[in-house]
Specification:
Arc Repressor Mutant, subunit A, D-Maltodextrin-Binding Protein, domain 2, alpha/beta, 11 helices
Length: about 325
């Protein structure tokens, strides 16, 4: 197999058409350069240079080999540069798993901040429910997973994002839209649209536990695999649903705020917990920057309560401010 040094020597001789000047450019002795060229020609089984005491010229084969040698050296330099950049976290790829509930916030601003710091890193997004996020994280299909929690798994580190309040989403003219806030007791015998058990088990347990605390049996009328499908079943007046408040407002802004109402879902315990999880043994050099961006964003949110009010001001026309918070 040819080595890069012999190709560098050949290219230098081809550029200078003079062994003395080529050796000087390579900072090596001329006899050593001559031996390298001879060995290269022996390896290829053909003369690359036609030389006499006064002139050095490329042979026809030498012309072809020179073209390929330049390509090989250029690719080798590129490979070396990319390797160094990846080792320093300047380039590479980051695979992120996420649930739909974190798309608008915090994922979108988080990716924006990360891309400023690592503009040459390719981001691969994988949208899956929490039930599929953990297997993907454990088999290293994703570097980080933004999902529902809490979780406790050996070798997996987590960063809590927030306790997400919940809201009831319903058609605008629904009878419960007259209320300022809704409890599980208010949903007694009210038709519910929920996610399918195989993909929404974590979410269903969190929601139905509140019904259990109130002694109410949820009346499930429809099931769907995605938040968007659930949303449109609600708009079709096939039931109401319960979403994280930020996601409910995101849907209202993105689709049909004039067709729906959003009301706070009052719970005895806190709402849903969202978190970011990653494997402790993950060696992706760009992952620490992603985690640092997430923690910096959370610290900024904690020190800026006005951000919550700003989100409320962007709430759709059919929504109301939760009790205890003023939008002014």
């Amino acid at each position: 197999m040819l080595n890069l040094q012999s190709l560098r020597c050949f290219v230098a001789v081809a550029d200078h058409l003079n062994f003395t000047r080529a050796a000087a450019s390579l900072n090596m002795a001329q006899p050593a350069l001559t031996r390298t060229i001879n060995q290269l020609e022996d390896r290829l089984g053909a003369p690359l240079l036609s030389r006499d005491t006064r002139n050095v010229r490329l042979t026809a084969i030498g012309q072809l080999v020179l073209e390929e040698a330049r390509k090989t050296l250029t690719q080798a330099l590129r490979t070396e540069r990319l390797g160094r950049e990846m080792a320093l976290g300047q380039t590479g790829q980051l695979n992120i798993g996420y649930t739909a509930f974190v798309v608008a916030d915090p994922l979108a601003p988080l990716l924006r901040q990360f891309s400023v710091l690592k503009p040459n890193v390719r981001i691969e997004l994988n949208n899956n429910p929490t039930e599929l996020q953990l297997p993907a994280l454990l088999n290293a299909s994703v570097d980080a997973a933004l999902m529902l929690g809490p979780i406790s798994i050996p070798g997996v580190l987590t960063c809590k994002i927030r306790e997400e309040p919940l809201s009831v989403v319903m058609p605008r003219d629904h009878v419960l839209a007259e209320k300022d806030a809704i409890t599980a007791s208010d949903l007694h015998k009210v038709k519910l649209v929920v996610g399918t058990e195989n993909q929404w088990s974590v979410y269903r347990r969190a929601i139905f536990s509140e019904f259990d605390r109130c002694g109410v049996l949820p009346r499930i009328s429809q099931e769907a695999p995605t938040p968007e499908a659930i949303f449109w079943l609600v708009i079709a007046d096939l039931g109401v649903t319960i979403f994280p408040t930020s996601y409910a407002h995101h849907l209202a802004q993105a689709y049909s705020a004039d067709l729906m109402s959003v009301r706070p879902f009052v719970t005895q315990k806190s709402g849903l917990s969202t978190l970011c999880a990653w494997r402790k043994d993950n060696l992706n050099p760009v992952l620490p920057t992603f985690i640092q961006c997430l923690k910096a964003q959370l610290e900024q949110e904690a020190s800026d309560p006005a951000r919550v009010l700003a989100a409320l001001r962007r709430a759709p026309a059919g929504s109301r401010t939760p009790p205890g918070l003023s939008a002014e």
